[in-house]
Amino acid sequence: MKLTTAKRIFVAGHRGMVGSAVCRLLDQRKLEQRKSDGVEVLTASRSELDLTDSASTLSYFQKHRPDVVIFAAAKVGGIVANKTYPVEFLSDNILMAISAIRAAHQTDVGRFLFLGSTCIYPRDCQQPIQEESLLTGPLEPTNEAYALAKISGLKLCQYYRSQYGSMFHSAMPTNLYGPGDNYHPEHSHVLPALIRRFHEAKLSGAPSVTIWGTGSPRREFLYVEDLADALLHLCELDDPPDWVNVGTGIDSTILEVSQMVAKTVGYEGKVETDPSRPDGTPVKCTDATRLHATGWKHQVSLAEGLQRTYQSFLNETQSEQLRSV
Ligand SMILES: NC(=O)C1=CN([C@@H]2O[C@H](COP(=O)(O)OP(=O)(O)OC[C@H]3O[C@@H](n4cnc5c(N)ncnc54)[C@H](OP(=O)(O)O)[C@@H]3O)[C@@H](O)[C@H]2O)C=CC1
Ligand SMILES: C[C@H]1O[C@H](OP(=O)(O)OP(=O)(O)OC[C@H]2O[C@@H](n3cnc4c(=O)[nH]c(N)nc43)[C@H](O)[C@@H]2O)[C@@H](O)[C@@H](O)C1=O
Q1: How far, in Å, from the CA of 8 to the mean position of ligand 2?
Q2: Where would you tag: which of 20, 79, 189, 314 has the fewest CB atoms within 10 A of its CB?
Q3: Is the model's pLDDT at 33 over the cut of 70?
Q4: Rounded to the nearest whole angstrom, what is the distance from the C-alpha of residue 199 to the centroid of ligand 2?
Q5: Angstrom distance (rounded) from CA 147 to CA 121
Q6: Distance CA 224, CA 311 (A)
Q7: Ligand 2 in contact with 83 (CB < 6 A)?
Q8: Whether the Cβ atoms of residue 117 and residue 146 lie closer than 8 Å to each other
Q9: What is the CATH number of domain 3-182+221-247+287-300?
């Protein structure tokens, strides 16, 4: 089953940054026009469907019978949220993955695309990170819980595919950013945290902004609308990889990235570091060879993506829709 032949497409986590970008892209591609042929994009808020509840998840799948599932629901957060709440990051994410993947099998879903993260790879694995590095060494302690849940989801998809022939496969996105991100000062990822902090410093005229850690870790960033495009592309492949990195192959230090954010926001003060805060993985950059071999490459540079994200941050702040949870 391919996306373009599906009648019912379930986007799990449609209110999140990734799920909402996938829904916007489906809409742009006029899948809505196929409504006359009975094509539907299915969504369910958490109050309608708690995906950690396997019985409710199975009944939802039995009732709505999706053909294709893009699974962008998860408990998500930055380095401090992951480090502080390992119980929830492991248990919620593993329950969601197992409930949904099993329900998909039990209701004959034609394609299931699971989303993991590049934090599944060993902390000190060879760079750039190839898919083959999975399970070759210890995980980064700050996100071990989340990574274990994501590895389980990826492996469960792979096992259903090999044991039952199900078209279940996974994408491992690198660090993401873009419209609809979470701007919580402590729990968010680095880019939304810094956009907010530099913006507030500009407004208050603060002489300096402090970033966490030493500023030396290297990270790769992908604009969420590029990710949405990659996910739809993967859903069209006849024989997709069991799991594939989705990234740009380009990384920068956190200090360099913070200077880019300052420039985007128009902040002219100093940038200071706080080494008492965790650095996490020293380097995390994907090898995008497997992805490129499927015929997909990112389009949006970090400088351009930051401009677009800052604009959406300003719009979200003005309309009081800023997510900060
Ligand atoms: N953001 C990033 O940098 C990266 C994200 N990813 C992966 O991409 C996917 C999407 O992440 P992102 O969009 O950033 O995350 P968000 O936090 O923005 O969105 C997550 C979505 O999952 C929903 N959700 C959480 N728990 C439940 C539950 N128990 N039942 C039903 N729905 C639930 C949330 O619902 P509600 O709106 O009600 O809270 C929300 O809509 C995740 O799998 C994540 O692991 C991978 C790499 C990097
Ligand atoms: C996507 C990925 O995201 C998480 O891993 P992470 O890559 O470490 O994510 P992060 O965005 O929170 O931090 C990146 C770097 O940036 C530095 N940093 C500076 N200043 C701020 C700051 O103000 N906030 C944050 N969060 N980080 C900051 C921070 O110290 C670190 O060195 C995983 O837990 C897991 O969720 C996962 O898969």
Answers
A1: 35
A2: 314
A3: no
A4: 19
A5: 8
A6: 14
A7: no
A8: yes
A9: 3.40.50.720
Q: What residues contact 292, with CB distance under 8 A and at least 6 apart?
A: none
Q: Is 266 annotated as a binding residue?
A: no
Q: In this structure, what DSSP letter does residue 277 have? A: S
Task: Copy the structure tokens of residue 40.
Answer: 């539907």
How many whole angstroms separate alpha carbon 97 and alpha carbon 176?
Answer: 20
User: DSSP class of residue 137?
Assistant: S
Q: Give, as one character, the DSSP assignment of residue 213.
A: B
Percent of the chain with pLDDT over 90: 94
CB of 217 closer than 6 A to ligand 2? yes
pTM score, whole prediction: 0.98
- Please state, in angstroms and rounded to a whole number, the distance separating the CA atoms of residues 229 and 25: 7
| 243 marked as part of a ligand binding site | no
Confidence of residue 37 (pLDDT cuts 50, 70, 90): confident
CB neighbours of 261 closer than 8 A, spacing ≥ 6? 191, 194, 195, 198, 306
DSSP state of 48: T
Token pair, residue 267, equals 């902040």
Distances (CA, A) of 314 to 176, 180, 321: 19, 11, 10
Q: Which among 75, 24, 296, 286 has a CA at the least distance from the CA of 172?
A: 286
Using CA atoms, how far residue 122 sits from 85, 114, 134, 249, 282, in Å, is 20, 20, 7, 17, 11
Dist. CA 282–CA 175, nearest whole Å: 14
Q: How confident is the model at residue 129 (pLDDT cuts 50, 70, 90)?
A: very high
| 118 is annotated as contributing to ligand binding | yes
Residues recorded for the chain: 325
**Distance from C-alpha of 109 to C-alpha of 101, rounded to nearest angstrom:** 9
Nearest to 22 by CA among 193, 239, 227: 227
Q: Where are the domains of the chain?
A: 3-182+221-247+287-300
